[in-house]
Amino acid sequence: MADQYQYNTNEEKFVKDSHTKEIDLINRDPKQINDDVVKVEFEDVIAEPDGTHSLDGVWKLSYTTFTVSKYWCYRVLSAVFGIPVALLWGFLFACISFCHIWAVVPCIKSCLIESQCVSRIYSLCIQTFCDPFFEALGKIFSSVRVALRKEV
């Protein structure tokens, strides 16, 4: 009985639920799917060419305003809409997965099975009718010799 209890506790250690796995709070884009899209800095949006510069204080305050407002606006929007949008995306991808698993793959499999049937019939027709015809044509024209001469 003690051995059975020991076995069950060890088994529970190896079972891991994918819904409760730990997430990385430091690197939140491990696959770099947003590298080229949303990395927008002040210098990427606002730039003053040589000869057209604002006051240094205005430039510094503009930089700070842009950076802080972008930071807090994203924080507020993600706090308000993050969970509902995540719920919608989860629902959408669940529906896509459901349709793919229960409709698309079986439909494709059915089409493949039907096309194999048609392929066998087509192959049989080609072998029965076309192969003898083209074989006869090949024998007829096999004695034809082509000579290419170049006259100057």
Order of helices and strands: HHH
Helical residue percent band: 55-70%
Major sheet size, sense and barrel closure: none
Our measurement of the CA-to-CA distance between the termini, rounded to an integer number of angstroms, reads 104 Å
Indicate the mean pLDDT. Answer: 86
What are the low-pLDDT stretches, counting only 5+ consecutive residues below 50? Answer: 9-14
* C-alpha-based Rg, rounded: 35 Å
Tally of individual helices: 3
| Beta-strand residue percentage | under 5%
Categorize the overall geometry. elongated
Keyword list:
mainly alpha; 152 residues; 3 helices
Fold and architecture overview:
- This protein has 152 residues and is an all-alpha fold.
- The chain has helices spanning 2-14, 42-45, 56-141.
- It starts with a helix and ends in an 11-residue tail after the last helix.
- Mean pLDDT is 86; it is low at 9-14.
Outline the secondary-structure elements:
Elements: H1 2-14, H2 42-45, H3 56-141
Summarize the structure.
With 152 residues, the protein is mainly alpha-helical. 68% of the residues lie in helices and 0% in strands.
